[in-house]
Write a sequence for this structure.
């Protein structure tokens, strides 16, 4: 996904249109008043982050995690596990041993 | 200044001695703490839930085992308060969010299981900033916690409920989680000891994830020794946490009184005035800690951690990025709140819009933005490089120094409402604590004097990964010097 305005002015502050778009991606709805407040607040944080954005770090490897670990596998030995009913009993809606959700097919992505 | 702090604290180790030698029963101990809760919880609001019945049953069971001559664990009869983002089987676990209100986990977090096995009595679930996002505990959906030293002030956050519970004498120990300072900063503001262990040193199984590469579970206590005892109990390898470090059993208490003679201590210049916003009185107090260590025989020198200047920015890109992914699971399908809608997407949107508070929404949006194509390299990618730079800085320093020293919080506890509407001002509270999270190193905050307002000040000891033993030694020396 490429956000509008990226190509022209990348380090310009986030616009309210972009906040609206991001909220939609994150499955959040904002009132117009909230949109104004959040846009201003996110701008303040991103303005602060300009110090990082400005750094020349081409020869530095990114570090996404404090430990150098990759796929951790356990031994393939059967262990006692929770039953599906332990989880389903806490779900908002279930039917026939499954989580029940509103209609998905035919819905816009 | 009006507060609710008891005159003396009883240590966990003292309680264990009394209970195991039958001088006092676990039930009697529990009732003392429940009385204190009864009297002051209305003012402090440290808990989302006090589990009185379960606690009484657990204490009774401990007493039964004693009568039957069974061997008891290292926390026999010790009441413990658990942050409400750690799963407790059959007991509501909310993360102080409306989106999980009423949800009862089907299992105990590993730390909770270990505490119970060690004989501790769980007294309740403590308040926090929603999903541990905040530095004041004002972002709780169930109302703020107040600082027991002055009820008009915040306790810090996000584990403000756990810190306040220990400071108010509601429990001698408490458990919190620390993603950017959420144990150490409230410990400093409430005048108690708080520890963030090495990343991977304590299991995160059953901790509701905020930022998985930064989150770590740790103890609050009224003394360094108690913190070390609890850390020994909750630490260790857990096959249920894929980031858990395979390690020999921890031994922190044994060497705790060995002092600091000939140890080399580096004082981080960037956090002693190099970065704006750290108050004069906090720096002054940290300098007194420097003198105390020096007097005790340590070799103390000023050092530079250049990447510290960029940690706040890096953290507030990395943590929201991880949070935006972790919190996508709250969609109204599997647990907690569902607000109906005509379609799946509408139900998701309705649930999340109603269920999440403003700070959580802010961070989810910030993280989604920082991870989006076109901005990924500029923000998240750059932040990860700062993290590497910081790790290199630390590694260089630890070639020459055993531990590092800095303030814990840039200021003493502030008034409720003072910063809550200005996120960036709030985020600055984490400036001294964030570096340890970014690299996964352990750090401890120890109370060390007070500010002009009489509110507690904490100093922070940072150590290399898995070197908590020396961290506790230094902390113990500072504790003795401050008494």
């Amino acid at each position: 996904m490429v956000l509008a305005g990226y190509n022209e002015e990348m380090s310009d502050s986030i616009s309210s249109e972009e906040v609206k778009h991001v909220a939609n991606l994150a499955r959040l709805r904002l009132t117009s008043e909230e949109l104004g407040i959040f846009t201003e607040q996110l701008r303040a944080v991103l303005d602060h982050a300009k110090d990082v954005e400005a750094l020349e770090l081409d020869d530095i490897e990114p570090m996404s995690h404090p430990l150098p670990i990759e796929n951790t596998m356990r031994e393939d030995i059967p262990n006692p596990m929770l039953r599906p009913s332990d989880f389903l009993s806490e779900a908002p809606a279930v039917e026939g041993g499954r989580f029940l959700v509103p209609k998905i097919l035919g819905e816009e992505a | 200044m009006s507060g609710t702090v008891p005159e003396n604290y009883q240590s966990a180790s003292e309680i264990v001695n009394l209970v195991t030698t039958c001088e006092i029963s676990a039930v009697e101990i529990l009732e003392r703490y429940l009385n204190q809760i009864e009297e002051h919880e209305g003012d402090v609001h440290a808990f989302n839930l006090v589990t009185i019945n379960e606690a009484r049953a657990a204490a009774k069971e401990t007493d039964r085992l004693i009568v039957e001559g069974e061997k008891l664990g290292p926390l026999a009869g010790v009441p413990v308060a658990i942050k409400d983002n750690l799963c407790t089987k059959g007991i509501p676990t909310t993360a102080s969010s409306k989106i999980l209100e009423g949800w009862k986990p089907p299992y105990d977090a590993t730390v909770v299981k270990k505490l119970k096995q060690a004989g501790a009595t769980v007294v309740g679930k403590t308040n926090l900033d929603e999903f541990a996002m905040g530095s004041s505990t004002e972002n709780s959906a169930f109302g703020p916690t107040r600082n027991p030293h002055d009820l008009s002030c915040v306790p810090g956050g996000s584990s403000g409920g756990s810190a306040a519970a220990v400071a108010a004498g509601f429990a001698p120990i408490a458990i919190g989680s620390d993603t950017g300072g959420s144990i150490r900063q409230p410990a400093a503001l409430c005048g108690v000891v708080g520890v963030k262990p090495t990343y991977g040193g304590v299991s995160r199984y059953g901790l509701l994830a905020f930022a998985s590469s930064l989150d770590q579970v740790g103890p609050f206590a009224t003394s360094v020794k108690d913190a070390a005892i609890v850390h020994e109990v909750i630490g260790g390898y857990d096959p249920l946490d894929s980031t858990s470090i395979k390690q020999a059993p921890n031994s922190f208490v044994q060497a705790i009184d060995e002092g600091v003679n000939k140890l080399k201590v580096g004082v981080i210049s960037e956090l002693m005035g190099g970065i704006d916003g750290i108050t004069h009185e906090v720096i002054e107090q940290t300098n007194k800690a420097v003198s105390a260590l020096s007097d005790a025989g340590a070799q103390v020198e000023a050092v530079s951690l250049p990447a510290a200047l960029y940690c706040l920015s890096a953290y507030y890109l990395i943590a929201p990025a991880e949070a935006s992914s972790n919190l996508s699971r709250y969609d109204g399908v599997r647990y907690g709140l569902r607000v109906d809608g005509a379609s799946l997407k509408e139900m998701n949107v309705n649930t999340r819009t109603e269920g999440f508070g403003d700070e959580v929404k802010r961070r989810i949006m910030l993280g989604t933005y920082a991870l989006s194509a076109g901005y990924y390299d500029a923000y998240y990618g750059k932040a990860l490089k700062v993290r590497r730079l910081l790790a290199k800085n630390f590694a260089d320093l630890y070639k020459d120094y055993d531990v590092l020293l800095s303030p814990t919080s840039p200021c003493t506890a502030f008034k409720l409402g003072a910063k809550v509407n200005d996120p960036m001002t709030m985020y600055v509270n984490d400036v001294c604590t964030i570096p340890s999270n970014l690299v996964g190193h352990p750090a401890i905050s120890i109370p060390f004097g007070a500010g002009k307002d009489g509110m507690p000040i904490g100093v922070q000891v940072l150590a290399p990964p898995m070197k908590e033993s020396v961290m506790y030694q230094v902390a113990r020396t500072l504790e003795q010097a401050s008494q």
Remarks:
- Chain B has one domain: 1-483.
